[in-house]
Design goal:
Its EC number is 3.5.99.5. It is globular, with a radius of gyration of 21 Å. The longest helix is centred in the middle third of the chain and has 26 residues. β9 and β10 form a beta hairpin. It is α/β, with parallel strands linked by helices. It is built from 15 helices and 10 strands. The chain starts with a helix and ends with a helix. It has one domain: Amidase signature (AS) domain (Amidase signature (AS) enzymes).
Amino acid sequence: MNQHMLLEPGLNGAFVRDSFGALPAAAAAAIATAVATPIATRLVEQPSSQATLAGRRLAVKDVFDVKGLRAGAGNPAWAAEQPIATSTAFAVQTLLEHGAQWVGKTVTDELTYSLAGINIHYGTPSNPAHPQRIPGGSSSGSAVAVAAGHADIGLGTDCGGSIRLPASYCGIWGIRPTHGRIASNGCFTLAHSFDTVGWFARDGALLTDVFNVLAHSNTQALPERVMLCLPDDLITLLHVRARATCATVFDTLSHHFEVSLLTSASLAPETWAHGFRVLQAAEIAQQHGAWALRHLDSFGADIRARLQAAVNVSNEQVQVAQRVRTDAIRTLARIFDEPDTYIVMPTLPWIAPLIGASGAEVDEVRVRAQQMLCIAGLAGLPQVNLPWTSFDDAPLGLSVIGARGNDEGVLATARAVHDALACPVDMCSSA
């Protein structure tokens, strides 16, 4: 299908044409009915909470059901076989009920099985932070929509890093919540034990507001004592220029928080990343392998090769990878055993590759990035990417990871870290 028929013109190539600018009548009517329902018959909450997101523009990755539409998942062959949704996904419905304003559906990598943000059918959304570089995927359209100011909230999903990586590449906030913390009803699943609903915003306050709405939670105040840990095992993965900046940042944070260096061999990023890839591939093959093999010609070369490899993962490989996952969960649980302890780390080894980089180069970047992204993924932990710094005019994000279920603490700490880095020590101490 012609790319121009699939995309909404302009807008950094972030939006699909289907239902851009207006919800289908069926979905709009369902939202109106829900909002008009008396609060007492819904959740016990303050009436004003229904307007928490009033006026905030919402962009939604094309993997969520919207009543009256098909979820295309970045592949026209897949989209053609999907039924028209008879209900709207929980996350979309909830945000709209709380006042968010629909903008449209956004571009995603094919079946969300990529971190590049390159789609042979829809093209590559233009990264507003650096148009010569890729935006990152698979939630590329939602990240670009927020970074470019076309939306305030960008709803997406994160399986292997599809929120955190594009948030870093585009210089915005992004969250992967604790696995299972946000209901994924009505959302395409790539690998069921890894997929999470996530989202982007241009500031930490809105990122938190969205969490509070979706999780029915409340903003958490930062305790007096917070311990920040920097894993020594990850420093060696960084580009040499990022290493130097990372050391400076950790010194700055030591003026605001307790800090600690996790000694070498505390983590096993290379082993963990391999285990993650095996388990993810096995789950993908289980759910989508048969369909993918019948439609291989509909995929771009990189994703086609990944799908072919996924169906060849053996049970023996899965068993070994499961033991790796168990070890990762235990290791990270020990780190977070002390309350109010968080890992702080650059989200990725380096900035986004240039558009036109070879497939081998993009894949090499993907493999290195997975060694940092797999930490939260394997253990189902919450992670927030926050804007941090730039190199060659391209952003690189910083991340905060916390204990399973402590999303509120991760959000509060990420915002405090961002404020600390934005405020010189002498100014903060005299304030």
